[in-house]
Specification:
This protein has about 280 residues and is α+β, with helices and mostly antiparallel strands. The chain has helices at about 5-20, 30-35, 40-50, 55-65, 70-85, 90, 95-110, 130-145, 150-160, 175-180, 185-200, 245-260, 265-280, and strands at about 85-90, 115-120, 170-175, 205-210, 225, 230-235, 240-245, 265. It is built from 13 helices and eight strands. Strands 1-7-6-5-2-3-4-8 form an eight-stranded mixed sheet, with helices on both faces.
């Protein structure tokens, strides 16, 4: 979690404390406010001390309980400011994976060029429906989110229409380990590798594979996506990071360029994919 994010969350906590202390009907203790809200006192303490990120519902309840309902819009705006940089999976997945996919679809619709580094799964724009289904199911189990797998798969496949629109370009580099990852049944993985073999040479896709034995100038760390030159999205276990300052975007571009130097393309990339495919036992 970034220092800027921690600082902003701490500022939000201080504002919540002000509302509690300055309640129109007299200063409230943390314990008294917790009783009004039906929360553990520890939750009030964590929110005020910037150790827990509130939801919109938490903020509305806080404003109402301190008899300062008019403060909700300000509090919600502060929370959105946090979410513009760190978007927790807990909040994003409250309604399932489909809304997250639809947000992503809207985000990339206005992008012309995407640069992606993938070190764990095949990128969503190139996934088959069955492979995507397996990935969603794994994350639903991990995060205990609402199960809307089929809706999420349909939204992800719809996203792939982007590849067939004029003026679009996907520059994707993947770690060879992605091809070996048994996140799905063997027959599903084979079909996914066939899909990758088919996209090599597409006008809108430039696919590179970094072989396991390639010399690396950087470790193959977190996957990330760069949208034009305006936004980098990094996926972590607890959240997505949306990074939009110029210095950070320039850093991630250097990372992508450096990793791409170790990749193979065209026929060589197809040979790596085919070698993995031949090793799969169905």
């Amino acid at each position: 979690m970034s220092t800027d994010y921690q600082r902003a969350r701490a500022e939000l906590g201080r504002r919540l404390r002000e509302l509690r202390v300055e309640s129109p009907d007299g200063r409230l203790t943390g314990t008294a406010l917790a009783e009004r809200l039906g929360w553990p006192q520890s939750k009030v303490s964590k929110l005020e001390n910037g150790r827990q990120t509130p939801t919109d519902e938490d903020l509305r309840a806080w404003a109402d309980a301190t008899h300062q309902s008019g403060a909700f819009d300000e509090l919600s705006a502060r929370l959105k400011g946090l979410d513009s940089h760190v978007r927790s999976w807990r909040r994003q997945l409250a309604g399932g994976h489909r809304p997250v996919q639809e947000t992503w679809n809207s985000l990339i619709a206005e992008s012309r060029t995407m640069h992606m580094w993938e070190n764990s799964t095949v990128c969503g724009l190139l996934q088959t429906a069955d492979y995507a289904r397996s990935v969603f199911e794994r994350y639903e189990e991990l995060r205990r989110s609402p199960r809307d797998t089929e809706d999420a798969v349909r939204a992800r496949i719809k996203l792939q229409e982007w590849l067939y629109r004029p003026g679009k370009r996907l520059e994707v580099v993947m770690w060879e380990g992605v091809l070996w990852a048994q996140l799905c049944p063997p027959d599903v993985l084979m079909a996914q590798l066939d899909r990758l073999l088919g996209v090599v040479g597409m006008d809108t896709v430039h696919l590179g594979i970094v072989p396991l034995d390639a010399a690396l100038r950087l470790p193959p760390a977190n996957s990330f996506c760069m949208l034009d030159g305006r936004l980098v999205v990094v996926e972590d276990w607890h959240a997505e990071l949306w990074l939009d300052d110029a210095e950070t975007i320039a850093l991630y571009r250097r990372v992508w360029d450096t990793l791409a130097e170790s990749a193979v393309y065209g026929t060589e990339a197809q040979q790596v994919i085919a070698r993995v495919r031949r090793s799969i036992k169905v």
